[in-house]
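Design review, sub-item: ligand-bound model
Attendees: FS, YL, KQ
YL presented the inputs for the magnesium ion complex:
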Amino acid sequence: MEATGCIAIPPAGIRVIDLLEQAGFEAWCVGGFVRDAFRGAAVHDLDIATNAPWRESARVLRDGACSVHETGTAFGTITAVVDGNAIEVTTFRSDGTYRDARHPDSVTFVEAIEDDLARRDFTVNAMAYHPTRGLRDPFGGKRDLEAGLIRAVGEPEKRFREDALRILRGIRFASQLGFKIEDATLQAMHANAASLRAISAERVFTEIDRMLMGDHVLQALLACPDVIGQVLPEIAAMNGCPQNTPYHIYDVYEHTAHVVADSPATPVSRWAAFFHDVGKPVCRYTDSSGRDHFKGHASQGAEIARDALVRLKAPVHLRDDVFTLVRLHEWFVPATEQAVLRALNKLDGRVELYRALLALQIADSGAKAPGVTERLEAAQRMSIVLEQVLGQDLPFTVKQLAVNGGDLLAAGWVPGPHLGSTLDELLDAVMDGRVQNTREALLEYASRHCSI
Ligand code: ATP
Ligand code: MG
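KQ shared the predicted structure:
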């Protein structure tokens, strides 16, 4: 074994490699598994590359009692399931030309693992590892892994022209791993960014989503605003958009990058942060003193964000929640139990959405000029009150009342739409502290204050 350290391959992977090799073929662990295992990161999906044609791999593995699914045979891939673990097994291949900057028109199966590694995107993803033969690393992936570098395999220009998605993948890996993008690779990313327009919305969404979720998203966003702007022109307009106000030290894009990085790493929070100020470029108005105003940017931005997410074919729930968060990101209520209960009520009782709104407001207020802390403190106070309110089990939706429509009917009320408005009135009274949330108190209150 080379003196490069060894990594633990899960038993299911060893079994697949052994079966293939006992049948006279060659097999290696490849791709993200090798990269992440060397980083000591959590277990990753295992991909195996082999010189066995896929039909042969399927036969050998089935004979070895693995179940086999023919998941991507046009590209030489089958999936073996061993002890509940799905392992992709792909025949060594080199990709042909790319017609649509994404799918190779053809794949050519090749003899040597080195040729298979050469088709891979980045050096850290182009290592092969074998339990006894050790590491095969013709492009210096291990060195780049240790140096924290994303470097294209081969000539970066050519590799991005073949498949533009690799540009976004590179930024996504930089965001996830905290790696710098090597100079020539970064230059080629900038130079070829326009070809990203040929990439399908679903793939763009997946990569941007994973990039936004990365621990190092701030650096990734700051490295490539132009690239992101190609797939999201709405975001491009924020880059360089000044904010001449006493509250800001960054332009809209840089401010946004900080807010994203300071937001919880959930899709709703990170996408909402990404879009929270997207309405600013269109709403910007500079007064005669040179000061900028952005009146209406929250509601305009919500529309822009929704349209962008529709275009990217984002999940409907994400689109809707981001719309709400962007629209409300400047909505501050007093830090009192009553106001917070009413805010929860306005959000249809969606506690997590309110938590996400407050987290966005905290991240947003924190990324402003030093000394501008009023809103930050207000949002922090609201968060404390929110948790207090939740701890006391106070009602903020009609469903949480100690009575329902049936109880009112049983107490002699006649059926009709006024039952709903009576329950609303009761909830109002409970939230204001005018009546206790108990069955007796509510029925008594209803009989005295609500009209039948
Ligand atoms: P993760 O699964 O964490 O996203 P990964 O490296 O496993 O990371 P996959 O998309 O699962 O990424 O791809 C597996 C491997 O296939 C990669 O490590 C890389 O070697 C290769 N690969 C994937 N997509 C491309 C591409 N567009 N161009 C070249 N090689 C690619
Ligand atoms: Mg993978």
